[in-house]
């Protein structure tokens, strides 16, 4: 998969070139100053960005008495890991985490399967109205989700899957697929037509072209979308509370809201809960960072 | 991989059903009338609960466990965050396969559901050995004015008052006030002690606690009858009487904690217990957010007298349960609710919760602390009892009050326009 | 953008294999079942008065005429436009700025990029909780202000009508800038370095290079950034709702929060649906205009 990643290319000033051997001292100093300036700016910016995260991490290890007496923003005077246990067990986050994964993994796979099929059809064949279809599918993603809440909960009831994780998978697939089609369409359209024409001459049908040629070529896009959609689906709250009503079925985000309702003033427990809820997506991000970064702008691939 | 394949199969089957199912049975707005017999009536009775604070949640869990141990029908508790619960309650009740029983409040706030025939008729339960002995006031509160049926089982009630820490009042050398002027003088004294005299937690999603101030001032200035009529839309929030309420509020406003509109009431509780604020007008449920060791140090005084000619009414909201009329387990639900109505169940609940509520059963013992004894006396001596802003009107009216009152707390000078806006917003709810 | 997948033929002459048709129709049907069909019902509700319990009552365009005279709607509409401009403009500008700053591969760059991107993977629930902690009266922001001697600037950030709107935009930006930055980073990477060399040979200054090479080359990325920003502006519902619920007294009210509170708190579901229709028309208007233009250019 890595081979299909665009090799990183430096843009602008060639930083790799060494200064001339006779050593223009002034140029070297200027370059060092620029480097220092860069690291100072970028470092401060990163620090600023990480500050809220650091606050949560610190808060999650403080005791309630410490926070109550000195305030959230004060220097910590206590250290405990008990909050994580409280959020995980009494707060019900352990169970909710399992639910989240049961929903997220099939949803990602199913969404991408369906989206790649549609994108293949729309981008590689001269379907009538294909632009309109693409726009219509994307427009589903533009609907304010709130307008769908009540109809969707009634719909899942009519089908008989209300309050089941299936309903959550269904609505997440339905709501997400439009955007994935749009992105994959952009990517697949860029695959040269000659490859497909050669396959047609060799007698390959649409299924072979889809599964043997286009899908493998679209792997970087699929990898990127998997990573992205994992975070989106994992982080959903609105759909979960719309089609589910049993606390033992709720995913981690709804459980975090429940945790907040349960421990409103216990900021340490809430912070621990937030850390737990964010851990899987952070892990996915750190593990698949390149896919995120390389593929995020697939819609704009030229 | 197993979960995936099953899920996908079910899902695809579901999608197939959409074409037939959704199109035929069609409209979303129809409160689906599938007969509940289509579902199995053998499963446990489900109880949907919004009691999500740690102590109340545990207490209810213990209660359900005790009930299940008795044999007979089984019950299953389902606790969801109270905000989720509130927004989803209409969906629950109108669904074809609803949860069986719910935590909720009696009175106006349940009436909209009763009117639509969504609540299970519990009149026969009220003939039973326990509920038949409940006070007449409770019985009336649980009878729907539109259907004449009793559809609610109250299990406990509590009171509102100015809570404070005894040790702090002793430290500052101050006493409980009884009249409005004494109250203002107390605030003045406290201010010199470098403490915010009046705490409130009307921010972060608990803006509704500000309504307690409006309720009490209106009850003390204009009386409980006027208050109820106002909430029912028979008067205008623009009336001179209402303006008078805000005149009094304005006198106390300089003594409010400036952080009060930025904190949830639970965080305001922390401020009170830490001595950053001196007292807070709140219901006893706030103790659920307090460490148990602080409970012994808490005391309260009743909202001071403003006009001695006005009979002293108190806010004493009741909590309890109702059930869905579409339940497939009518007998099981009634059995569960009948258990909740017993003295034994109520005492068990009180023992495991923060213990600051009063049981509705005449024989049930409260936890007997001086605080609770005092609270019981307060309600017993009240000329009339009100519930709370939303409970005496509707949940739909509550957001209009939240907007108006929080606005007033930070911009008291704009009271005229605030009340005009409030009346306009309320009118939209009443005429809905 | 100009690659055409297949040579264009006379319309109607192409025979599309049935399997390909199924490939397109199955996802379309799934979306239709879960999105379009519910949406149609939502649109229908927009022309009714409904409390979620009794049968809805048709009111024609009543909800839309009510809107015209509804001052909260006007506030929410104004705030939404301001949100689009501020949130959209700032995340585009700062995202591009961060991308330009961090575009060169050099030591430590991975860390900086990861730091800026990290908030993107947080759920809005977690984000809101984090920032609620930051904005607490005794939270980090106020404590830092006090520590550096700016105690007078301390604020109840979320509870003050003059600051709430901006206080809510900050966490939204915190999540968005990293995302936009990554989009632009990839866009910058795709620019042919020879273009810069040619510009340098012509004696173009850095600003001129940016103005005449970078910006035009990023135009296709801009389209994506625009769609992402508009979609995310609508999704900003969660973070606003969690932090202020549109308050205090509607000062941070967006159309999406107003829609939600009208529908689910005041139980005016008909009016709430009408508000949702307005949101949809706005979003679709912005994006469709852009997409249609992009498609035209492509063909």
Automatic annotation (TrEMBL), chain A:
CDD domains: TM_PBP2 (cd06261)
Entry's transmembrane regions: 36-58, 96-120, 132-152, 167-187, 221-244, 264-286
Domain ABC transmembrane type-1: from-to ranges: 97-288
Location in or out of the cell: Cell membrane
Alphabetical UniProt keywords: Cell membrane, Membrane, Transmembrane, Transmembrane helix, Transport
Annotated region (Disordered), positions in chain: 1-25
Listed Pfam families: BPD_transp_1
Membrane topology reported for the UniProt record: Multi-pass membrane protein
Keyword Membrane annotated: yes
Highest taxon listed in the record's lineage: Bacteria
Gene3D superfamilies in the cross-refs: MetI-like
PANTHER family, per database record: ABC TRANSPORTER PERMEASE PROTEIN MG189-RELATED-RELATED
Family, as annotated: Belongs to the binding-protein-dependent transport system permease family.
Name listed for the protein in its UniProt record: Carbohydrate ABC transporter permease
UniProt organism field: Streptacidiphilus cavernicola
TrEMBL record, chain B:
SUPFAM superfamilies from the UniProt entry: Periplasmic binding protein-like II
Top-level taxon: Bacteria
Region Disordered: start-end pairs: 29-52
Biased composition (Low complexity): 29-46
UniProt cross-references to InterPro entries, sorted A to Z: Bact_solute-bd_prot1, SBP, TAT_signal, TAT_signal_bac_arc
NCBIfam families xrefs: TAT_signal_seq
Name the record gives this protein: ABC transporter substrate-binding protein
TrEMBL record, chain C:
The entry's keywords: Cell membrane, Membrane, Transmembrane, Transmembrane helix, Transport
Membrane topology, as annotated: Multi-pass membrane protein
InterPro entries: ABC_transporter_permease (IPR051393), MetI-like (IPR000515), MetI-like_sf (IPR035906)
Spans through the membrane: 20-40, 81-102, 114-134, 164-186, 269-292
Residue span, ABC transmembrane type-1 domain: 77-292
Subcellular location: Cell membrane
PANTHER family per record: ABC TRANSPORTER PERMEASE PROTEIN, INNER MEMBRANE ABC TRANSPORTER PERMEASE PROTEIN YCJO
Family: Belongs to the binding-protein-dependent transport system permease family.
Protein name: Carbohydrate ABC transporter permease
């Amino acid at each position: 998969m890595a081979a299909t990643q665009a090799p990183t290319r430096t843009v602008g000033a060639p930083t790799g070139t060494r200064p001339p051997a006779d050593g223009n001292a002034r140029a070297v100093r200027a370059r060092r100053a620029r480097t220092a300036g860069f690291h100072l700016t970028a470092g401060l910016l990163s620090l600023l960005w990480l500050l809220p995260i650091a606050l949560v991490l610190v808060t999650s290890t403080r005791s309630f008495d410490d926070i109550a007496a000195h305030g959230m923003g004060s220097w910590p005077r206590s250290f405990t890991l008990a909050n994580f246990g409280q959020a995980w067990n009494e707060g019900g986050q352990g169970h909710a985490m399992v639910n989240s994964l049961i929903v997220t993994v099939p949803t990602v796979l199913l969404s991408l399967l369906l989206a790649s099929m549609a994108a293949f059809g729309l981008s590689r064949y001269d379907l009538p109205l294909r632009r309109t279809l693409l726009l219509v599918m994307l427009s589903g993603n533009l609907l304010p989700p709130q307008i769908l809440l009540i109809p969707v909960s009634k719909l899942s009831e009519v089908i008989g899957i209300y309050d089941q994780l299936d309903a959550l998978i269904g609505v997440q697939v339905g709501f997400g697929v439009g955007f994935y089609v749009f992105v994959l369409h952009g990517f697949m359209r860029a695959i040269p037509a000659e490859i497909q024409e050669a396959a047609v001459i060799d007698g390959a049908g649409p299924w072979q072209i889809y599964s043997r040629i286009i899908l493998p070529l679209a792997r970087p896009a699929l990898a990127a979308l998997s990573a992205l959609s994992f975070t989106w689906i994992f982080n959903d709250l609105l759909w979960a509370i719309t089609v589910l009503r049993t606390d033992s079925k709720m995913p981690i985000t709804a459980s975090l809201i429940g945790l907040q309702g349960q421990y409103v003033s216990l900021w340490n427990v809430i912070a621990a809960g937030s850390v737990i809820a964010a851990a899987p997506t952070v892990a996915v991000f750190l593990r698949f960072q390149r896919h995120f970064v390389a593929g995020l702008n697939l819609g704009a691939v030229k | 991989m197993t979960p995936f394949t099953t899920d996908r199969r079910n899902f695809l089957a579901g999608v197939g059903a959409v074409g037939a199912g959704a199109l035929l049975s069609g409209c979303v707005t129809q409160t689906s009338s599938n007969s509940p017999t289509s579902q199995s009536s053998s499963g446990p009775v489900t109880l949907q609960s919004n009691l999500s604070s740690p102590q109340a949640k545990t207490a209810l869990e213990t209660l359900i466990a005790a009930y299940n141990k008795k044999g007979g029908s089984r019950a299953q508790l389902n606790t969801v965050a109270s905000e989720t619960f509130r927004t989803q309650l209409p969906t629950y009740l109108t669904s074809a396969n609803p949860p069986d029983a719910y935590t909720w409040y009696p009175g106006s706030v349940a009436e909209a559901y009763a009117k639509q025939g969504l609540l299970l008729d519990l009149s026969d339960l009220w003939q039973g050995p326990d509920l038949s002995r409940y006070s007449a006031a409770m019985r009336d509160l649980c009878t729907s004015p539109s259907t004449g049926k009793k559809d609610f089982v109250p299990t406990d009630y509590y009171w509102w008052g100015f809570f404070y820490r005894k040790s702090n009042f002793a430290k500052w050398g101050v006493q409980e006030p009884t009249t409005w002027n004494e109250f203002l003088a107390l605030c003045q004294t406290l201010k010199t002690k470098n403490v915010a005299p009046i705490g409130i937690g009307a921010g972060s999603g608990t803006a509704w606690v500000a309504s307690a101030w409006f309720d009490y001032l209106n009850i003390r200035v204009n009386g409980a009858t006027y208050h109820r009529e106002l909430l029912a839309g028979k008067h205008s929030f623009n009336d001179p009487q209402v303006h008078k309420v805000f005149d009094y509020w304005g006198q106390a406003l300089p003594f409010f904690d400036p952080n009060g509109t930025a904190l949830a009431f639970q965080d305001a509780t922390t401020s009170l217990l830490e001595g950053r604020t001196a007292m807070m007008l709140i219901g006893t449920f706030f103790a659920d957010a307090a460490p148990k060791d602080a409970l012994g140090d808490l005391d309260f005084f009743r909202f001071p007298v403003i006009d001695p000619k006005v009979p002293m009414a108190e806010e004493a909201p009741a909590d309890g349960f109702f059930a869905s009329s579409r339940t497939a387990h009518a007998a099981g639900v009634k059995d569960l609710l009948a258990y909740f109505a017993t003295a034994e169940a109520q005492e068990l609940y009180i023992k495991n919760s923060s213990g600051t509520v009063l049981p509705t059963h005449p024989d049930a013992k409260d936890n007997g602390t001086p605080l609770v004894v005092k609270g019981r006396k307060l309600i017993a001596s009240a000329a009339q009892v009100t519930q709370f802003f939303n409970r005496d009107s509707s949940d739909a009216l509550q957001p209009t009050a939240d907007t108006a009152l929080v606005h007033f707390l930070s911009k008291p000078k704009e009271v005229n326009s605030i009340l005009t806006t409030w009346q306009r917003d309320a009118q939209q709810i009443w005429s809905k | 953008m100009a690659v055409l997948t297949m040579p264009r033929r006379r319309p109607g002459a192409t025979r599309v294999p049935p399997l390909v048709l199924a490939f397109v129709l199955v996802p379309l049907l799934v979306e239709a079942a879960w999105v379009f069909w519910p949406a149609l019902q939502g649109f229908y509700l927009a022309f009714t008065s409904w409390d979620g319990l009794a049968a809805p009552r048709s009111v024609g365009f009543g909800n839309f005429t009510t809107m015209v005279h509804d001052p909260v709607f006007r506030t929410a509409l104004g705030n939404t436009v301001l949100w689009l401009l501020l949130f959209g403009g700032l995340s585009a500008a700062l995202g591009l700025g961060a991308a330009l700053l961090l575009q060169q591969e050099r030591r430590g760059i991975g860390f900086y990029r990861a730091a800026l991107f990290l908030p993107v993977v947080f759920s809005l629930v977690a984000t809101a909780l984090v920032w609620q902690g930051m904005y607490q009266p005794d939270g980090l922001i106020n404590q830092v202000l006090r520590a550096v001697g700016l105690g007078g600037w301390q604020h109840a950030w979320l509870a003050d009508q003059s600051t709430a709107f901006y206080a809510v935009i900050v966490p939204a930006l915190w999540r968005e800038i990293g995302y936009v930055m990554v989009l632009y980073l990839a866009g910058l990477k795709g620019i042919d370095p020879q273009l810069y060399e040619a510009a340098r040979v012509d004696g173009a200054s850095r600003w001129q290079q940016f103005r005449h090479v970078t910006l035009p080359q990023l135009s296709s990325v801009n389209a994506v950034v625009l769609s992402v920003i508009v979609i995310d502006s609508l999704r900003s519902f969660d973070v606003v709702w969690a932090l202020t619920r549109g308050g205090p007294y509607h000062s941070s009210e967006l159309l999406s929060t107003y829609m939600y509170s009208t529908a689910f708190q005041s139980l005016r579901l008909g009016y709430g649906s009408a508000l949702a229709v307005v949101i949809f028309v706005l979003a679709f208007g912005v994006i469709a205009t852009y997409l249609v233009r992009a498609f035209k250019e492509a063909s």
